[in-house]
Write a sequence for this structure.
Protein backbone atom coordinates (compact mmCIF):
# COMPACT_ATOMS: atom_id res chain seq x y z
CA UNK A 1 0.00 0.00 0.00
CA UNK A 2 1.16 3.51 -0.70
CA UNK A 3 2.00 5.91 2.10
CA UNK A 4 3.64 9.25 2.76
CA UNK A 5 5.69 10.46 5.71
CA UNK A 6 6.19 14.14 6.31
CA UNK A 7 8.99 14.85 8.75
CA UNK A 8 8.23 17.75 11.05
CA UNK A 9 4.68 18.76 11.75
CA UNK A 10 5.81 22.35 12.30
CA UNK A 11 8.58 24.24 10.54
CA UNK A 12 9.55 27.82 11.29
CA UNK A 13 11.76 29.96 9.05
CA UNK A 14 12.70 33.60 8.84
CA UNK A 15 11.45 35.69 5.96
CA UNK A 16 13.99 35.40 3.14
CA UNK A 17 15.36 32.09 4.37
CA UNK A 18 15.31 28.77 2.57
CA UNK A 19 12.19 26.68 2.99
CA UNK A 20 12.66 22.89 3.10
CA UNK A 21 9.70 20.63 3.78
CA UNK A 22 10.45 16.91 3.80
CA UNK A 23 8.41 14.13 2.28
CA UNK A 24 9.22 10.45 1.93
CA UNK A 25 6.95 8.00 0.20
CA UNK A 26 6.36 4.31 -0.02
CA UNK A 27 4.91 2.80 -3.16
CA UNK A 28 4.97 -0.57 -4.87
CA UNK A 29 4.92 0.98 -8.33
CA UNK A 30 6.39 4.16 -9.81
CA UNK A 31 4.41 6.81 -8.00
CA UNK A 32 2.79 10.05 -8.87
CA UNK A 33 3.66 12.66 -6.24
CA UNK A 34 1.96 15.91 -5.32
CA UNK A 35 2.38 18.86 -3.00
CA UNK A 36 -0.70 20.78 -1.94
CA UNK A 37 -0.99 23.94 0.17
CA UNK A 38 -3.86 24.78 2.49
CA UNK A 39 -4.43 28.30 3.77
CA UNK A 40 -6.63 28.80 6.84
CA UNK A 41 -10.26 27.92 6.23
CA UNK A 42 -9.56 27.07 2.62
CA UNK A 43 -9.45 23.96 0.49
CA UNK A 44 -6.29 22.36 -0.83
CA UNK A 45 -4.52 23.97 -3.76
CA UNK A 46 -2.01 22.17 -5.93
CA UNK A 47 1.54 23.53 -5.72
CA UNK A 48 3.23 21.06 -8.03
CA UNK A 49 3.25 17.45 -9.15
CA UNK A 50 5.61 14.79 -10.40
CA UNK A 51 4.28 12.17 -12.78
CA UNK A 52 6.93 11.27 -15.32
CA UNK A 53 9.88 12.95 -16.99
CA UNK A 54 12.07 15.57 -15.36
CA UNK A 55 12.70 14.84 -11.72
CA UNK A 56 12.98 18.50 -10.74
CA UNK A 57 9.52 19.96 -10.78
CA UNK A 58 8.69 23.65 -10.56
CA UNK A 59 5.41 24.84 -9.17
CA UNK A 60 3.54 27.97 -8.30
CA UNK A 61 4.74 30.70 -5.96
CA UNK A 62 8.42 29.85 -6.49
CA UNK A 63 8.27 26.35 -5.02
CA UNK A 64 10.00 23.35 -6.49
CA UNK A 65 10.54 19.71 -5.57
CA UNK A 66 12.88 16.98 -6.67
CA UNK A 67 11.88 13.36 -7.08
CA UNK A 68 14.67 11.11 -5.84
CA UNK A 69 13.82 7.49 -6.41
CA UNK A 70 16.90 6.17 -4.61
CA UNK A 71 15.91 8.07 -1.49
CA UNK A 72 12.14 7.66 -1.98
CA UNK A 73 11.88 11.38 -1.34
CA UNK A 74 10.04 14.36 -2.78
CA UNK A 75 11.13 17.31 -0.66
CA UNK A 76 9.63 20.75 -1.25
CA UNK A 77 11.89 23.80 -1.36
CA UNK A 78 11.73 27.53 -1.91
CA UNK A 79 14.88 29.66 -1.94
CA UNK A 80 13.42 32.62 -0.10
CA UNK A 81 10.41 32.48 2.21
CA UNK A 82 7.74 35.13 2.16
CA UNK A 83 5.22 35.92 4.85
CA UNK A 84 2.46 34.84 2.49
CA UNK A 85 3.92 31.30 2.42
CA UNK A 86 2.67 30.65 5.94
CA UNK A 87 0.22 27.77 5.52
CA UNK A 88 -0.07 24.02 5.88
CA UNK A 89 1.59 21.87 3.26
CA UNK A 90 0.61 18.34 2.33
CA UNK A 91 2.55 15.78 0.37
CA UNK A 92 0.50 13.12 -1.40
CA UNK A 93 1.20 9.94 -3.36
CA UNK A 94 -0.84 8.07 -5.92
CA UNK A 95 -0.29 4.82 -7.73
CA UNK A 96 -2.88 5.71 -10.31
CA UNK A 97 -6.26 4.16 -10.87
CA UNK A 98 -7.20 1.62 -13.48
CA UNK A 99 -8.63 3.60 -16.31
CA UNK A 100 -6.95 6.84 -15.36
CA UNK A 101 -7.22 9.28 -12.50
CA UNK A 102 -5.47 9.31 -9.15
CA UNK A 103 -6.50 8.32 -5.66
CA UNK A 104 -4.36 10.38 -3.33
CA UNK A 105 -2.92 9.28 0.00
CA UNK A 106 -1.87 12.29 2.05
CA UNK A 107 0.80 12.85 4.63
CA UNK A 108 -0.05 14.38 7.97
CA UNK A 109 0.93 17.85 6.85
CA UNK A 110 3.58 20.40 7.82
CA UNK A 111 2.59 23.77 9.23
CA UNK A 112 4.98 26.42 7.92
CA UNK A 113 5.47 29.54 9.97
CA UNK A 114 7.36 32.50 8.53
CA UNK A 115 8.80 35.02 10.96
CA UNK A 116 10.07 38.52 10.40
CA UNK B 1 -15.23 26.97 -14.33
CA UNK B 2 -16.23 27.81 -10.78
CA UNK B 3 -14.34 24.88 -9.37
CA UNK B 4 -15.67 22.29 -6.96
CA UNK B 5 -18.54 23.76 -4.97
CA UNK B 6 -19.49 22.47 -1.54
CA UNK B 7 -22.39 23.44 0.66
CA UNK B 8 -22.88 24.40 3.34
CA UNK B 9 -19.52 25.90 4.33
CA UNK B 10 -20.36 25.50 7.99
CA UNK B 11 -22.82 23.22 9.72
CA UNK B 12 -23.59 23.00 13.41
CA UNK B 13 -25.97 20.29 14.48
CA UNK B 14 -27.02 18.44 17.57
CA UNK B 15 -25.99 14.89 18.26
CA UNK B 16 -28.45 12.44 16.76
CA UNK B 17 -29.53 14.68 13.91
CA UNK B 18 -29.11 13.86 10.26
CA UNK B 19 -26.54 15.87 8.34
CA UNK B 20 -26.25 16.13 4.56
CA UNK B 21 -23.23 17.62 2.86
CA UNK B 22 -23.37 18.53 -0.81
CA UNK B 23 -20.87 18.72 -3.62
CA UNK B 24 -20.92 19.88 -7.21
CA UNK B 25 -17.81 18.67 -9.05
CA UNK B 26 -16.11 20.39 -11.95
CA UNK B 27 -18.01 19.76 -15.13
CA UNK B 28 -16.53 16.95 -17.20
CA UNK B 29 -14.63 15.34 -14.35
CA UNK B 30 -15.06 11.60 -14.08
CA UNK B 31 -13.90 11.05 -10.52
CA UNK B 32 -15.33 12.41 -7.29
CA UNK B 33 -13.70 11.95 -3.89
CA UNK B 34 -14.89 12.64 -0.36
CA UNK B 35 -12.21 13.31 2.26
CA UNK B 36 -12.40 14.05 5.96
CA UNK B 37 -9.83 16.17 7.77
CA UNK B 38 -9.29 16.03 11.52
CA UNK B 39 -6.43 17.00 13.78
CA UNK B 40 -6.01 13.44 14.96
CA UNK B 41 -6.17 11.56 11.66
CA UNK B 42 -5.29 14.16 9.04
CA UNK B 43 -6.83 13.79 5.58
CA UNK B 44 -8.64 10.51 5.07
CA UNK B 45 -10.31 9.30 1.92
CA UNK B 46 -13.84 8.20 2.72
CA UNK B 47 -15.19 7.14 -0.66
CA UNK B 48 -14.74 7.79 -4.34
CA UNK B 49 -16.90 7.55 -7.43
CA UNK B 50 -16.08 6.96 -11.07
CA UNK B 51 -18.75 8.06 -13.53
CA UNK B 52 -21.27 8.29 -10.68
CA UNK B 53 -20.60 4.73 -9.51
CA UNK B 54 -19.12 4.18 -6.03
CA UNK B 55 -15.84 2.33 -6.47
CA UNK B 56 -14.25 2.18 -3.04
CA UNK B 57 -16.04 3.00 0.20
CA UNK B 58 -13.58 1.26 2.48
CA UNK B 59 -12.77 4.55 4.18
CA UNK B 60 -16.32 5.18 5.34
CA UNK B 61 -16.02 4.91 9.10
CA UNK B 62 -19.40 3.43 9.99
CA UNK B 63 -22.78 2.54 8.61
CA UNK B 64 -23.97 5.92 9.82
CA UNK B 65 -22.15 7.37 6.81
CA UNK B 66 -23.51 7.09 3.30
CA UNK B 67 -22.73 8.79 0.01
CA UNK B 68 -24.55 9.04 -3.27
CA UNK B 69 -23.93 10.48 -6.69
CA UNK B 70 -27.24 10.53 -8.55
CA UNK B 71 -25.77 12.34 -11.55
CA UNK B 72 -22.49 13.71 -12.85
CA UNK B 73 -23.00 17.11 -11.30
CA UNK B 74 -24.05 16.31 -7.76
CA UNK B 75 -23.01 14.20 -4.80
CA UNK B 76 -24.07 14.00 -1.17
CA UNK B 77 -22.48 12.68 1.97
CA UNK B 78 -24.97 11.88 4.70
CA UNK B 79 -24.40 11.14 8.36
CA UNK B 80 -27.30 9.69 10.31
CA UNK B 81 -27.33 9.88 13.25
CA UNK B 82 -24.50 12.32 13.79
CA UNK B 83 -22.15 12.10 16.77
CA UNK B 84 -19.68 14.61 18.25
CA UNK B 85 -16.74 12.57 16.97
CA UNK B 86 -17.94 13.26 13.43
CA UNK B 87 -16.91 16.88 13.86
CA UNK B 88 -14.37 17.58 11.13
CA UNK B 89 -13.85 19.37 7.84
CA UNK B 90 -15.23 17.38 4.94
CA UNK B 91 -13.75 17.97 1.50
CA UNK B 92 -15.03 17.02 -1.88
CA UNK B 93 -12.60 16.76 -4.79
CA UNK B 94 -12.92 15.86 -8.45
CA UNK B 95 -10.55 14.93 -11.22
CA UNK B 96 -10.74 14.09 -14.89
CA UNK B 97 -10.08 10.72 -16.46
CA UNK B 98 -6.48 11.24 -17.42
CA UNK B 99 -3.26 10.03 -15.98
CA UNK B 100 -0.85 12.56 -14.59
CA UNK B 101 -3.63 14.68 -13.19
CA UNK B 102 -4.36 16.00 -9.75
CA UNK B 103 -7.55 16.25 -7.77
CA UNK B 104 -9.25 19.63 -7.48
CA UNK B 105 -10.63 20.39 -4.04
CA UNK B 106 -13.63 22.33 -2.85
CA UNK B 107 -13.51 24.76 0.07
CA UNK B 108 -14.78 22.18 2.49
CA UNK B 109 -17.65 21.94 4.94
CA UNK B 110 -16.79 22.43 8.60
CA UNK B 111 -19.12 20.19 10.59
CA UNK B 112 -19.60 20.62 14.30
CA UNK B 113 -21.77 18.14 16.17
CA UNK B 114 -22.67 19.27 19.69
Amino acid sequence: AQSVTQLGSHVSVSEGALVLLRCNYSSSVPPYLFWYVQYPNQGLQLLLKYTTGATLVKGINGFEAEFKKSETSFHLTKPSAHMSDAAEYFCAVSEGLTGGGNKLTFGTGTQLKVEL
Amino acid sequence: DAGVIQSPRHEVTEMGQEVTLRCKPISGHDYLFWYRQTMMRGLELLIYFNNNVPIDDSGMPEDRFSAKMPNASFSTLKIQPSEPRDSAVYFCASSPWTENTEAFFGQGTRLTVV
Remarks:
- The interface with chain B takes residues 32, 34, 36, 41-46, 49, 51-52, 90, 96-97, 99-109 of chain A (CB under 8 Å).
- Chain A has a mean pLDDT of 92.
- The first strand of chain A starts at residue 3 and ends at 7.
- Chain A is about 0% helix and 55% strand.
